[in-house]
Amino acid sequence: MVVRVSKIALVAAIGVLALAITVNNLQDRQSNFLYIQHVMSMDTTFPDNQLLWRAITAPTAHWIAYAMLISTEAAIAILCLVGAVQLLRAVSEPAKVFDRAKGVAIAGLTLAFLFWFVGFMVVGGEWFTMWQSEVWNGQQPAFRFIGCVGVVLLFLNAAEQDLQS
């Protein structure tokens, strides 16, 4: 039972994190929008950057990317929180039933992993060379999120008998 409750709590914690990030991005739109704007504009990367042709400076594109970012964070929050509730409902059920209840939580955690890995490490970090910016580099926070989400995803998928042996 402790293992199941731990899995539920960790999935819920990722959901709460994503919810807090979503709320922050909605309540402090301008400062968080600046992050997207600077990363996509590549205006704080190395001056001799040979990849500046990738820069996107259109404000409309920045707002679209920002809306997609917030929507994805909200989807992660919803999937993880709904997934945690589904797991909670199955907490006392046989292992097969509990395993079947993992689907929505796995979807939320997978979306979170892909969002922070692809969105921040691949697109932001490498495509827009965010790693070159001393001010607008979000790779370290993204890596922390990837690590936390990855551990929870692995733990959620671990068979209970494997954890108890």
Q: Keyphrases for this structure?
A:
single chain, 165 residues, mainly alpha
Number of domains: 1
Strand content: under 5%
Uncertain stretches: none
Count of helices?
7
From the helix content, strand content and strand pairing, which structural class follows?
Answer: mainly alpha
Looking at the structure, what is the overall shape? elongated
The largest β sheet comes out as: none
Mean pLDDT: 94
**N-to-C span:** 15 Å
SSE run = HHHHHHH
Radius of gyration: 18 Å
Proportion of residues in helical segments: over 70%
E-strand count: 0
Can you tell me about this structure?
With 165 residues, this protein is mostly helical. Helix content is 76%, strand content 0%. Helix 1 runs antiparallel to helix 3 (59-89) and helix 2 (29-41) crosses helix 3 (59-89). The chain is elongated and about 60 Å long. The two termini are 15 Å apart. The model has no long low-confidence stretch (mean pLDDT 94).
Write a brief caption for the model.
With 165 residues, this protein is an all-alpha fold.
Any chance you could write out the topology, listing elements then pairs?
Blueprint (H helix, E strand, L loop, with lengths): L1 H26 L1 H13 L17 H31 L5 H6 L2 H25 L11 H19 L2 H5 L1
